[in-house]
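User: Modeling request: complex.
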Amino acid sequence: MYDKNVPYNDLPDLPPRGIDLSNIYKPLIASSRSLAQFNGAIKNLPNPHLFIDTIHLQEAKGSSEIENIVTTNERLYEQIVADKKYQNNSEKEVINYKKALFHGLAALEKRPFLHTNLYVEIMQIIKENTSGIRNTPGTILAGSDGKPVYTPPTGEQVIREKLAQLDEFINTNEEHDPLIKLAMIHYQFEAIHPFTDGNGRTGRIIMLLYLKMSGLLELPALYLSEYIISHKNEYYRKLNAVTAGNDWEAWIIYVLEMVDHAAIKGINRLDSITQIMEDTAKDIKNELPKIYSKELVEVLFYLPYTKRQALVDADLGTAKTVGNYLKELENKGFLISKKVGKEVLYLNHRLMAVLN
Ligand SMILES: Nc1ncnc2c1ncn2[C@@H]1O[C@H](COP(=O)(O)OP(=O)(O)O)[C@@H](O)[C@H]1O
Ligand SMILES: [Mg+2]
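Assistant: Request completed. Predicted assembly structure:
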């Protein structure tokens, strides 16, 4: 019998048996369509890689926020563009999160396979430490009232066996649709809770990696955590209802709705960014024809902040020339300058407005 106060070493392996999935087909079809449309929208972008950092950073920020690691878009992007060292730990963990996601994506490029060692590497990059699988007892998940909600399996060997079984399910099981598997994988990873900390974030990176690996998304630039932030209690409640009541259906529907919302919002956000980029290009061409170039506009939209060196790196001119470009762009209201440490950063406020 399951007892929330006792390590759940009897956590069943995937796939779950004897579950009722009669209500998932509608949301499954809806989310599959939205996701396919989003995938198409990304592939049709003239330069998909242009927005990828920005979108991944949104997910990194959101996923960290679920774990109460909170920063603002301004602080985060400023930190990325400026040379200045971290002022506080939140931005550092968010930037680490993005690095961990890229590490995972690079690993998949080499070998399309999700496995325990990769999860450990991801967690270590996020946490910037060298810890591994939990090997001491005492990890208990508590609710907002501080009372125990769930006690994950204990014992490194037990945890490793459960992860190995999860790996096998991820990489070989073809019984279920990938989006249903996505929900099963996320639950299972969180229920195993292999680390002392970083399980939520690593588990959400695994979702993006799985979407990439299963071929559903070429560039997994999906802001899934936005949905979780606005449906956070449900997230915890439904994860727990699988453990306590075998309620897989409600959990799977939650994940499908998360994918659907993220894909639809993603399409709209891509549209907005593409639109303001076109408008900005047109306006710069009109108002500053001498400095306009397609490459210049791309630099301004790579991240919401830019600086002189970024323009130099893009071969737009010498430091002096591009410094004048930035000043003229500011005079015409395209950019707003801000001094950070010894540097001057330039905010593309139109782009930032879409992100905020
Ligand atoms: N009842 C539960 N059963 C399984 N997993 C849960 C439950 N409640 C919360 N979780 C998962 O645990 C995560 C938090 O674990 P934690 O190791 O602190 O992650 P992070 O360091 O990324 O903060 C949540 O984001 C959620 O995914
Ligand atoms: Mg935590």
